[in-house]
Design brief:
The structure holds two protein chains of two kinds. By secondary structure, chain A is mostly helical. Chain A has 13 helices and four strands. Chain B is built from three helices and 36 strands. Classes of the chains: A mainly alpha, B mainly beta.
């Protein structure tokens, strides 16, 4: 596929360090230690392999940090210790870290128990999803952009030291998301923006960080319409006279939803320059060109002064009312 | 008009001396407080709570006030920031946790609030749960949305004076022509509530009940085009109620099947009137009229000779006496959804979802009544009403599978199907009355022929012959307009994913997307054209003589009227557009060390068609992200995001890109000092051929016409927008009780656009600075007590391009905001 529009000068500074790091990483792979990758997490069911959380507490009450076990006791995960139906492989610390007997008998040998620190995102997530996979929220995480980029559950969640108690998040939104999505931080600090920094809207109101079936991990309304219409329902229609680009290409055909320096979150600073990009030439798609009396040096440059119902109208094919 | 939005906004800003007086009082209070015997201060992060009965209870409340001082454009400040002066409940949280995890009514209770008392954004969150029995989440948000950015929908009237105009409109300059506020302004309040209950969360069968309510109301200023652009006032009102019932079945091993029933009800009750009868604009009989927003004496807008020598409004101008539009929009959308998640089969993860939604839309009581004049058609009174109805039918199906081929190799496939269609129609009845000018009432014709609808004569009219023009519409019309729009979409993404080891992985895939877009139109027409002022003028519009003969469908009646009927007929075959997209996707991640992550992904897309001229037929996206914890006290983040697109076919020549480069560093050498700094550069570019007409670009030897569009010229519209964003955030705890913070968010934007076609247009946001420094401190002066003082500065500045009207419409502002508060936590 011919790559055009991107000057070669852009590719070189991007690819060269990546290739260099790739070679370095490949060379630096610890060949002495076999990668303990699991195809899928298979929970050992032999009850004799498990010691119970109270045993873990004897060492880990204040290790690796003061009050370590207490933070787990106060967290939602502690309820697993009260489960009476499932086996010990679903209870307490060992529900995540695996059987602890060998670890205890080994005097705390770290190699005898699963530690999250050096595991891959796929391995970590496989353990979490063994409980949390079911339900619309998490069912697509295995195919999500996050996991495919080695961002696993513990990159955002911290079962032991959560700063945000809901969902055990490492940081509250949007601070957590900005840690990787730097370009979005600059967008939300533009003059016109969705109120994410103000706390009114969260990233997860529009995006499902655990993945989904739509691009950009976007959510949808209950009727599977654009997520924008959850709040901006008056733009949803249906309308007798649709502004077809809204329904076919979506709100992002004209708007930059995170933030921009342009009013109304539009892609262009002047409305007419945006409208004219489609309404020029009579192309097959039927967006008509402007009539000859629409002198752009006069009032006609303010397209929406007349075409007010620009998202669709029930009464006017020209969106006048 | 200039005072309309200030009157709507009841909280106004104080002068800075009031701020200083307030600060003095607070300083005195702080000194007194410091003089009190103080217990040893607690750190915020060690809030232990109290144990009461079977619960550990933590609470905090932060109460204070905001003090503001704003200079410059208040409307822009309210649009961007809208933080006003006054007391505030800045935050309240309450958290209860059962000590033995066997609470009576609940095991966990969490309630948090912020922004109450006058902030534009306020929210409350409630979570209550009892292990194994239920989990309830509630979120309530309120948003005050003020908008008045003066360039929005602004006709950019020049200051050319009007002969005989009233003060402000006459020589030496029409200063009142310049609109310093947006014709489209609003001050709305949105309330969003989401309430969800999950019953038996750990059982094999779970039940879910959800309710959401979204309301929006408030005053809105808008406009309508009817000869000129009259000002409208809307009392907006919108309500959406959504109900959801769901059940999850985990009866099969490692499999969950869910069913959801969703009902969505939308009500739109916005009423519209014209309340802009400016007392400066009067007819000779003393009646005020609305001449609209557009004033350009050189272009005869709103009309030639707008003001007579007497100073009264020319009665042949387009104007409104009154206008009203109502209609109750009701949309009812039930949706059924079934979903499945399973890893029942070894090595296979499956998820699937199917939905069906069939909604009905109706507009009850639609009625539009205008009283005024449209000069081109001599329209004086007009009423349109009739039922509107429509449907939205949508079916979706999604399927995803992950096949764990080996411990390192996965195959992933995601399929998405979406088919929706929106048929909708408006059966309108229109009664129109015509007269020669604003001073003369309409004459009402008495027809002898059978009419498709009965029209009641408006008050003040008299029997006689209407005064039409050749451009006048029908006197009586019953029209059925029915439109249909549909999209059928199928997308499949197939990828292979290989994880070499815990340090590196790669994926390669292919995505195919097929869309079929169809629209169609169907209409019937039953119109009657009355004669007047001459009998021949009944033969106008669709019944204008062609080669001396009435067109097909037109019938000359005995009373001189002409009837035009377009009967029902089979619609023509729909226009269908097919778009096929092919995309290659590639991703690579590696982790050179335990503390360093790098990811790269790219998507290269090619399509055989595009729906709009700005939809790319080819696009490339490249994303690089890295996070590196260099040491315990230094973290580095970086990202590069490049998107390139083009639709450079004949007569389009569209090229676009959006490139963002960002870097940030966080220093935390000790737990007493932290510093974060970052920079992001964003570069947006677009070029495309457009067809325009502009007196600023007259046709000449160097201009190119648009093929097939006589009278329009071709221009290459180039748009650039580059933005630099820098920020820093430093915190310092010199002593245990005191934490100081200082930072800033700074955004500078520059760019260019094809504004030569609109010489009056300021560069506006394309040459702007938005600076937001802030600073403050927290002081723990007693057990659980923290005093806070924060200062925020907001500076928005657009560099004027010396365009005359921008002198009156500068959108710059500077604001100091001080927030003082006391927080008590236990």
């Amino acid at each position: 596929m011919h790559i055009s529009g991107v000057r070669k000068s852009h590719l070189l500074p991007i690819l060269a360090p990546l290739l260099l790091t790739l070679v370095t990483a490949a060379a630096a792979t610890d060949k002495s230690k076999p990668d303990a990758q699991e195809k899928k997490y298979v929970r050992p069911t032999d009850a004799s392999l498990y010691v119970g959380s109270e045993t873990c507490k004897t060492c880990h009450e204040d290790m690796p940090s003061k009050g370590f076990y207490k933070t787990y006791e106060d967290s939602p995960h502690f309820v697993t210790t009260m489960d009476t139906k499932k086996g010990p492989e679903w209870h307490g610390c060992e529900a995540c870290h695996g059987p602890g007997k060998a670890h205890v008998e080994g005097g705390g040998d770290k190699t005898k128990i699963f530690t999250f620190k050096n595991a891959s995102a796929a391995e970590i997530s496989a353990r979490c999803l063994d409980c949390h996979q079911y339900g619309e929220e998490h069912s697509n995480f295995a195919r999500s952009a996050h996991l495919q980029n080695n961002v696993g559950c513990t990159d955002c969640h911290d079962p032991h030291h959560a700063k945000e108690s809901q969902f055990l998040m490492k940081e509250p939104q949007p601070l957590l998301c900005y840690g990787c999505h730097l370009d979005k931080k600059q967008q939300f600090n533009r003059p016109f923006h969705h109120r994410v920094n103000e706390g009114l809207v969260k990233c997860t109101d529009c995006h499902n960080p655990h993945g989904g079936f739509l691009s950009r991990q976007l959510r949808a309304t209950g009727s599977q319409d654009l997520v924008c219409f959850k709040c901006h329902t008056d733009k949803a229609g249906p309308f007798v006279y649709e502004h077809e680009a809204v329904k076919i290409e979506g709100c992002v055909a004209c708007h930059i939803p995170h933030g921009t320096s342009n009013p109304r979150l539009l892609k262009r600073a002047q409305v007419n320059l945006l409208c004219l990009e489609c309404h020029s030439f009579n192309v097959d798609q039927g967006a008509p060109a402007i009539p000859t009396f629409h002198n752009q040096a006069q009032k006609y440059q303010a397209c929406t002064l007349c075409h007010t119902q620009i998202h669709g109208s029930n009464a006017s094919q020209f969106f006048f009312q | 008009m200039q005072t309309r939005m200030r009157n709507m906004n009841s909280t106004r800003k104080s002068e800075f001396h009031t701020l200083m007086a307030s600060l003095t009082l607070v300083a005195l209070a702080a000194l007194l407080t410091l003089g009190l015997p103080a217990a040893r201060a607690q750190q915020d992060d060690e809030q232990k709570g109290i144990d009461e009965g079977n619960y550990n209870i933590k609470q905090s409340i932060e109460f204070g006030g905001r003090f503001t001082s704003v200079g410059g454009n208040f409307q822009t400040y309210d649009t961007f920031v809208n933080l006003q002066q006054g007391p505030r409940l800045l935050g309240f949280t309450m958290e209860m946790r059962s000590l033995d995890h066997h609470g009576t009514l609940f095991d966990s209770f969490y309630f948090s609030n912020f922004g109450y008392g006058g902030d534009p954004n306020m929210a409350s969150r409630l979570r209550i749960s009892k292990n194994k029995w239920y989990s309830f989440n509630a979120l309530f948000r309120k948003d005050e949305n003020f908008w008045d950015y003066s360039l929005q929908a602004n006709p950019l009237n020049p200051t050319t004076p009007f002969a005989n105009g009233p003060a402000g409109y006459a020589a030496p300059a029409c200063t009142s022509c310049v609109l310093a506020e947006s014709p489209h302004a609003f001050n709305t309040r949105r309330k969003l509530g989401d309430y969800n209950l999950l019953l038996l969360p750990q059982s094999r069968v779970r039940f879910r009940i959800g309710y959401s309510r979204n309301t929006m109301d408030g005053p809105v200023f808008s406009s309508i085009h009817q000869g000129t652009e009259q000002a409208l006032f809307q009392d907006s009102s919108m309500t959406v109620n959504t109900y959801r019932l769901g059940v999850d079945f985990k009866m099969l091993p490692r499999t969950n099947i869910s069913y959801d029933q969703i009902w969505n009800y939308y009500k739109g009750d916005t009423g519209t009137t014209d309340q802009n009868q400016n007392p400066l604009f009067q007819l000779s009989n003393g009646t005020p009229v609305d001449l609209g927003y557009s004033f350009n004496a050189g272009a005869s807008q709103p009309c030639a000779g707008t003001f007579l020598a007497t100073g009264f409004v020319n009665p042949t101008c387009s104007a409104y006496f009154s206008y009203q539009r109502d209609g109750r929009i009701r949309t009812n959308t039930p949706t059924e959804q079934i979903s499945l998640q399973s890893n029942y089969w070894k090595d296979w993860d499956l998820s699937a979802r199917a939905t069906y939604s069939a909604g009905d839309m109706n507009v009850f009581g639609y009625d539009q009544t205008l009283f005024g004049r449209e000069s081109r058609t001599n329209l004086r009174n007009d009423q349109i009403n009739g039922p509107v109805e429509g449907r939205r039918v949508a079916a979706t199906a999604d399927f995803g599978v992950t096949w764990h081929i080996t411990s390192k190799l996965n195959f992933i496939d995601s399929f998405h199907f979406n088919n929706w269609h929106d048929p909708a129609q408006f059966l309108s009845t229109e009664c129109s009355f015509f007269s020669a000018n604003l001073l003369t009432p309409a004459n009402v014709f008495t027809p002898a022929t059978t009419l498709p609808a009965t029209c009641a004569a408006p008050t003040g009219t008299a029997a006689g012959t209407p005064v039409h023009t050749t451009s006048s519409g029908a006197d009586v019309a019953v029209l059925l307009n029915s439109n249909f729009l549909k999209q059928d979409e199928k997308t499949n993404l197939a990828e292979f994913e290989y994880q070499f080891n815990s340090k590196m992985g790669v994926r390669l895939g292919y995505r195919f997307r097929h869309r079929a877009i169809a629209d169609n139109f169907y209409s019937t027409t039953d119109e009657v054209f009355y004669p007047g002022p001459t009998p021949a003028l009944a033969e106008r519009g669709a019944c204008a003589l062609a080669n001396g003969l009435l067109p097909t469908g037109c019938t000359l009646n005995g009373d001189g009227s002409v009837t035009f009927i377009v009967p029902a007929s089979t619609p023509a075959p729909a226009d269908v557009i097919f778009i096929n997209e092919h995309a290659a996707v590639f991703g690579l991640w590696f982790r050179p060390t335990a503390n360093w992550k790098i990811s790269f992904d790219t998507e290269l897309m090619s399509a055989d068609n595009a729906f709009t001229r700005i939809s790319p037929r080819e696009s490339q996206e490249y994303r690089v992200r890295t996070k590196y914890k260099v040491t315990d006290w230094l973290n580095l983040n970086g990202s590069i995001n490049i998107w390139e697109g083009r639709n450079n076919v004949f007569e389009v020549n569209n090229l676009q890109h959006n490139r963002a480069y960002g870097l940030s560093a966080m220093f935390q050498p000790t737990d007493k000092v932290g510093f974060e700094v970052g920079y992001d550069y964003n570069d947006v570019f677009s070029q495309i051929l457009i067809c325009i007409t502009s007196s600023a670009v007259p046709a000449g030897p160097t201009t190119v016409g648009c093929a097939g569009l006589p009278g329009l010229l071709q221009e290459l519209s180039v748009y650039t927008n580059t933005s630099s964003y820098g920020y820093f955030d430093a915190s310092w705890t010199p002593i245990r009780r005191l934490t100081a913070r200082l930072g800033a968010n700074l955004t500078g934007t520059s760019g260019s656009a094809l504004i030569t076609i609109t010489p009056n247009a300021p560069t506006g946001p394309l040459d702007s600075l938005y600076l937001q420094p802030f600073g403050g401190f927290d002081y723990h002066f007693g057990k659980g007590w923290t005093g806070k003082a924060y200062w925020g500065y907001y500076d928005y500045h657009e560099d004027s391009s010396n365009v005359p009207q921008d002198i009156f419409a500068l959108r710059n502002f500077r604001a100091n905001l001080v927030t003082l508060s006391l927080k008590y936590a236990f």
